[in-house]
Every structure is written in C-alpha cells, then in structure tokens.
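Escalated from tier 1: zinc ion holo job.
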Amino acid sequence: MAAQMDFMRRAIDLARHAVDTGSGGPFGCVIVKDGVIVAEGFNQVRATQDPTAHGEMVGLRAAAAALGTADLSGCEIYNISVPCPMCLAALYWAKIDKVFYCCLPEDADAAGYDNVTIARHLQKPIEAQPIRSERIEALYDDALAVYRHAVAMRRTAANALSPPPPIVGDATIPT
Ligand SMILES: [Zn+2]
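Tier 2 regenerated the structure:
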C-alpha cells in the first residue's frame, strides 16, 4: 500500500508539472512492472501540439520503448484520474493489467476537459455521433481485401513458425 501511495503521489506530481511548465493539462501517470516504475508520462498536448499526447499515451509509448514491446501485460498504471476514452482504449491495446486512479471523469469534466462528453458520444453508432462521417462503400471490397491479406499473411507466418519480417527503414508505402 505504501508503494502504491508513492506511485500515485508521483503521478500527481507529474500532473502538476504539466500545468506548471505549460506542457499541457493536469494529467500524469507512472507505469509499474514488478513493483518498479518503468515509465512516466504527463500531458504534453500544448508543448508538442499533438492532440494524442495525453499523459497515459506518453507513458505507454515510453513504457513500450523501455520494455521493447507493445505488449505491456504485467504492467500497472497509476494515473491521476480515470483515463479518458482514448487512453482507456490504448490501455486495452497495450494489455495493461490494472489501472489505479484518484479523480473521476466528472472531476475532469468540471475542470474543462471533455471526458464525459466524449464517452457519451462513443456509446452511439458512428453515424449518430456529432463527428461527421461517411462510408465510401464503393471501395469496401478493396479495403476488406487488405484485412484478408493480413489474415493470410498471419497464417503463413504461423505455418512457417516464424515471426513476420521486420519493417526495414521507414514504413512509407510507395504510391
Ligand atoms: Zn486521455
């Protein structure tokens, strides 16, 4: 419990740091594996002009880099608040084991952050959400073919009992 309090205090300090340095909103976290902090994050949206640079996203990227894997199974995150919908989804993608938090979405909302509003939007089908969207059905077969290609490649790789080849250089697809 004492360690948990220390981890959360560090997350709160990082959140305060984000505000005091003008880096971004009052959000900070630490990511812990086997009782040791492997990465930290605080909101850097304003500093980097990156709308996804929430504390948790910054922390996840740092943890993945530190551990050399996108699979953060076995890691716990100590976050000043319940993650926003984007970050909570990212925690699922990263397979984070457990989230510790202090503040509630309502607290962030009251401080001027859209956590509750966005969560409400996401409960609706895409066409009923305020963000404008349009399906381009004419290219559906082409798009779906890429998914099928990915599945086939995965099967081939599994059959060969070898991992897919690493991406060399930048991942720019020639046009
Ligand atoms: Zn977030």
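The beta strands are 28-33, 36-42, 75-81, 98-103.
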